[in-house]
Amino acid sequence: MYKKILVAIDGSQSAYNALNSAVDLAKQFDSELYLVSVVNTANLPMNVGVSYAPGLIEDMKKASNSDLKKAHDIVKSAGLTAKVNLLDGEPREQLVRFPKENGIDLIVMGKTGTSAFTRVFVGSVTRYVSEHTDISLLVVV
């Protein structure tokens, strides 16, 4: 039923709960897993005339790669393989674009992510994806 399953990884417990559900589905349907994390380079904190802290993007990439490695280890321990993708940009837009461009059949996301600030001021990534994708979406608590 689902040939390609994307799991959005942001380091939150909700994302790892989503990963566990996706692993179960991948086993059931013999699906390919895609682990995707997005470094939010579109909403970096800036003041007028002052850029963000040097090395901030690299630190964000390191943290995301660490989250992806942990997720990949979970997938491997379940006896599966996964394609790992670290993307840059606005997470909501990337998580709508990437699945469409890669023939994903199912997006699996956690209900809430790591950033309360983002949820309040930018809006929920999960909510945005649910409203802007035409791909099946499983939201996991």
TrEMBL record:
UniProt entry tagged with the keyword NAD = no
UspA domain sequence ranges = 1-140
One Pfam family here: Usp
Looking at the keywords, is Cytoplasm present?
yes
Q: Which UniProt keywords apply?
A: Cytoplasm
Would you name any one GO CC term?
cytoplasm
Query: Where does this polypeptide localize?
Result: Cytoplasm
Q: What is its main location?
A: cytoplasm
Which family, according to UniProt? Belongs to the universal stress protein A family.
Cite the PANTHER family for this sequence. Answer: STRESS RESPONSE PROTEIN NHAX (PTHR46268), UNIVERSAL STRESS PROTEIN HP_0031 (PTHR46268:SF15)
How is this protein named in the record? Universal stress protein
Q: Which organism is it from?
A: Companilactobacillus heilongjiangensis
